[in-house]
Amino acid sequence: KSANPQWREQFDFHYFSDRKDMLDIEVWRKDNKKHEELLGICHVDITALPAKQTNCLELPLEKHPGSLLMLIAVSPCTGVSISDLCVCPLGDPNERQQISQRYCIKNSFRDMKDIGFLQVKVLKAVDLMAADFSGKSDPFCVLELGNDMLQTHTVYKNLNPEWNKVFTFPIKDIHDVLEVTVFDEDGDKPPDFLGKVAIPLLSV
């Protein structure tokens, strides 16, 4: 019930290659569970923003009244990575020792926002649902922790995909839940849901 909403949410997006990327933002209005209406779209060219500083942007919504006020900072990724099983970060004894020392008891209060380190090895899925007419699926896996999201590559035409990827996350809240979702890639259409598991960090 507001024409001037304030969300005050922070989202982290990770880029691991020098590619040209656009940040696409959509604003929706929801009347009830069934009815939604698009209120506008805006785009931000990430490569055009100055690095290592917070950029305050007021973005007009295309073809609709109103604008979005956003703070966008482009900075090097720290503590987040995607790697293959053979070169996973904790596989290096020196790096494992550095991480153990970083999170030892005597350093507990050095940085209150940096409270831990999570490494997830996504090996494979078994007996997935067939989402295509061919009796196969094109599955990929999405990992979400807080507002961080990383994903695997797509394995095409396979109900038993093997990804063999290692994901690392910095932990900002020990009460967060790791959500792992498997989707079927469907070209230009939204991906189909194939399954999900939720793992509270406190249970690890």
TrEMBL record:
Gene3D superfamilies per UniProt = C2 domain
Determine if Coiled coil is one of this entry's keywords. Answer: no
Q: Its principal location?
A: membrane
Membrane topology type, per the record? Answer: Multi-pass membrane protein
Print the keywords alphabetically: Calcium, Membrane, Metal-binding, Repeat, Transmembrane, Transmembrane helix
GO MF annotation terms: calcium ion binding
Sorted alphabetically, the Gene Ontology BP terms of this entry are: regulation of neurotransmitter secretion
Do the record's keywords include Transmembrane helix?
Answer: yes
Q: Which GO terms describe its cellular component?
A: synaptic vesicle membrane
- Which family is this protein grouped under? Belongs to the MCTP family.
Protein name as catalogued:
MCTP2 protein
**Taxonomic source organism:** Calcarius ornatus
Whichever gene encodes this chain, its name is Mctp2
